[in-house]
């Protein structure tokens, strides 16, 4: 009896601690979103209150959408992220297939060479990357960002995908070969569909740092036409520091897509991490 | 690297046709990775040995490093940034990783209800961009808005409040803790995964021997998740010595007040691109990037060749 009560207190303490930390994690986001929908006076007078009919005001959102070119920023971020992920997945899966399927001289060396990029951040090469982009005339284009993010994503993609490709049965591939499938059809028609779950994991891992990156957009593509949403909101907020309605609305707009994506992919992401995809 | 489509295998005397497809599979990834990542990295390392003398790029050997470490214009900023970076890393190791381990230990308790909900909530900040995180905390900690004095008042500690981000003594700690808040999800998830991988038999055997609760965690589980703790430590190290975005959004490129939050990433940015009155300097930028590269390389090698080899791993 006493043991049962003991474990009950322990469980409630654990819940208390977890609820406490969960509140710390979510509270700032929550605070931003509720205040973005309030009138200026209400933001200052009573920051903790939910918007009521009297204090409800979307003036911040109208300022943001009227002033900043956020539709364009979203479009840029979207193009960069989607194209980079597609290239990372395609190139990464192809290389992973070559490394895990064929035995050739330099196989291990090639694997190690590609693994350097997992640990050494691409940012350290920025000085020369900018030089190269200037030389090839790619500065202030989305192509520059796509190239950098593709290179940044490939090492981890190859690493995770080749682990998964080793588990695809050899019998299946050999059956395909006997039926006269070329190596390319074996890859695209047999292997790729089987590693789809791993591809989804890689996609989620690749997506977050690309969408959130500030460094490369700031350096390689700061022009108005190529700003990503991260850089755009950084600059917008910098200009509107004193307009709290606009700042809070801009922050909420920037949180929104991440929140939606997270709620859609959180299962995939958490399963990916806990199944040991990143080791 | 060009011998990928090997024309014949040494093991087999029979000549096989050239396997072009191996090359086709490897080349796109190799080309992009080499051209955009490896070559610029090597070029940056090379640039750190050159400087502009009389308008001409000249080989100066280790001269740039001598300037960076010893010249009074550079040395003060550099050593300050390096010291701050170590403080930044130490705070992460002392606060972020223990909290991550503790949260993971609680989440992995068997039959815990709402575990998925807690996990989702605690991992949320990790996905937000630095811009969002930086500005939200700037607003919350701002004395103008009064949210943090209000919250401190609720727990009766209002007298403790001060504009932490604006004071040279506390700014670095405040920024580090914001970064901890954002990233605690990563150690939590990796440790959580490691804890779930411990087989039930091990835990049951411990319970049969009367090892439960705290002592079970420290004597049984902790040794088994040490490799995962090693991984989160090296990830934290690489991430911290490469950090830039959060400081830039919270404190600006000058990493104020008075350079008290300046770390290597912000120093690199200011040096390479210039800021306000300071002109951009490519060679010194490359030199700082090289120093960052060497620090990260040293950390990664220490982990791979010393720590990881000595760590005992258990096979189940």
UniProtKB/TrEMBL annotation, chain A:
GO terms for biological process: transmembrane transport. GO terms for cellular component: plasma membrane. Keywords: Cell membrane, Membrane, Transmembrane, Transmembrane helix, Transport. PROSITE patterns: ABC_TM1. Pfam families: BPD_transp_1. The keyword Transmembrane helix applies. It is found in: Cell membrane. Belongs to the binding-protein-dependent transport system permease family. This is Raffinose/stachyose/melibiose transport system permease protein. It comes from Shinella fusca.
UniProtKB/TrEMBL annotation, chain B:
It is found in: Cell membrane. Keywords: Cell membrane, Membrane, Transmembrane, Transmembrane helix, Transport. The keyword Transport applies. It comes from the Bacteria. Gene3D superfamilies: MetI-like. It is a multi-pass membrane protein. The chain crosses the membrane at residues 20-42, 86-109, 121-151, 171-195, 224-244, 284-306. One of its GO terms (biological process) is transmembrane transport. PROSITE patterns: ABC_TM1. GO terms for cellular component: plasma membrane. Its main location: membrane. The keyword Membrane applies. Coiled coil: none annotated. Residues 82-305 form the ABC transmembrane type-1 domain. InterPro entries: ABC_transporter_permease, MetI-like, MetI-like_sf. Belongs to the binding-protein-dependent transport system permease family. This is Raffinose/stachyose/melibiose transport system permease protein.
């Amino acid at each position: 009896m006493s043991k049962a009560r003991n474990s009950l207190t322990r469980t409630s303490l654990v819940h208390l601690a977890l609820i406490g930390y969960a509140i710390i994690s979510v509270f700032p986001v929550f605070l931003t979103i509720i205040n973005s929908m309030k009138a200026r006076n209400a933001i200052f007078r009573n920051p903790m209150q939910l918007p009521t009919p009297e204090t409800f005001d979307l003036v911040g959102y109208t300022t943001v959408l009227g002033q900043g070119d956020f539709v364009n920023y979203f479009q840029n971020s979207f193009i960069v992220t989607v194209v980079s992920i597609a290239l990372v997945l395609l190139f990464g899966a192809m290389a992973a297939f070559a490394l895990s399927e064929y035995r050739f001289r330099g196989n291990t060396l090639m694997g190690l060479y590609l693994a350097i990029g997992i640990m050494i951040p691409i940012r350290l090469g920025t000085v020369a990357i900018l030089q190269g982009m200037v030389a090839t005339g790619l500065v202030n284009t989305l192509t520059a960002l796509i190239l950098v993010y593709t290179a940044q994503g490939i090492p981890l993609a190859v690493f995770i995908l080749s682990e998964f490709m080793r588990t695809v049965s050899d019998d299946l591939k050999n059956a395909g070969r006997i039926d006269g499938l070329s190596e390319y059809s074996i890859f695209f028609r047999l292997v790729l569909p089987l590693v789809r779950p791993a591809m989804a994991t890689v996609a989620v891992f690749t997506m977050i740092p690309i969408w959130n990156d500030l460094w490369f957009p700031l350096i390689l593509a700061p022009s108005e036409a190529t700003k990503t949403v991260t850089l755009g909101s950084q600059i917008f907020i910098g200009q509107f520091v004193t307009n709290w309605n606009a700042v809070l609305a801009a922050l909420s707009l920037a949180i929104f897509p991440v929140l939606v994506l997270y709620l859609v992919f959180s299962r995939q992401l958490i399963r990916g991490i806990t199944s040991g995809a990143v080791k | 690297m060009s011998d990928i489509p090997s024309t014949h295998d040494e093991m087999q005397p029979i000549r096989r046709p050239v396997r072009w497809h191996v090359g086709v599979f490897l080349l796109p990834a190799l080309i992009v990775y080499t051209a955009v990542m490896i070559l610029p990295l090597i070029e940056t390392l090379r640039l750190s040995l050159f400087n502009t003398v009389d308008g001409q790029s000249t080989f100066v050997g280790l001269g740039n490093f001598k300037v960076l470490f010893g010249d009074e214009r550079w040395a003060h900023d550099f050593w300050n940034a390096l010291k701050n970076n170590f403080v930044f890393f130490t705070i992460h190791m002392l606060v972020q990783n223990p909290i991550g381990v503790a949260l993971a230990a609680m989440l992995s308790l068997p039959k815990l209800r709402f575990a998925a909900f807690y996990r989702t909530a605690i991992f949320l900040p990790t996905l937000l961009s630095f811009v969002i995180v930086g500005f939200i905390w700037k607003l919350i900690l701002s004395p103008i808005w009064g949210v943090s004095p209000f919250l401190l008042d609720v727990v009766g500690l209002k007298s403790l409040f001060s504009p932490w981000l604006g004071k040279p003594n506390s700014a670095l700690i405040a920024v580090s803790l914001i970064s901890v808040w954002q990233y605690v999800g990563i150690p939590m998830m990796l440790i959580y995964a490691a804890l779930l991988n411990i087989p039930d038999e091990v835990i049951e055997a411990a319970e049969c021997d009367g090892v439960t609760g705290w002592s079970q965690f420290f004597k049984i589980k902790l040794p088994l998740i040490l490799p995962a703790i090693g991984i989160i430590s090296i990830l934290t190290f690489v991430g911290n010595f490469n950090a830039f975005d959060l400081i830039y959004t919270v404190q600006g490129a000058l990493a104020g007040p008075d350079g008290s939050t300046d770390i290597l990433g912000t120093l690199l940015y200011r040096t390479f691109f210039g800021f306000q009155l300071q002109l951009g300097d490519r060679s010194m930028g490359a030199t700082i990037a090289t120093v960052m590269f060497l620090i990260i390389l040293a950390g990664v090698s220490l982990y791979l060749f010393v720590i990881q080899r000595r760590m005992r791993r258990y096979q189940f």
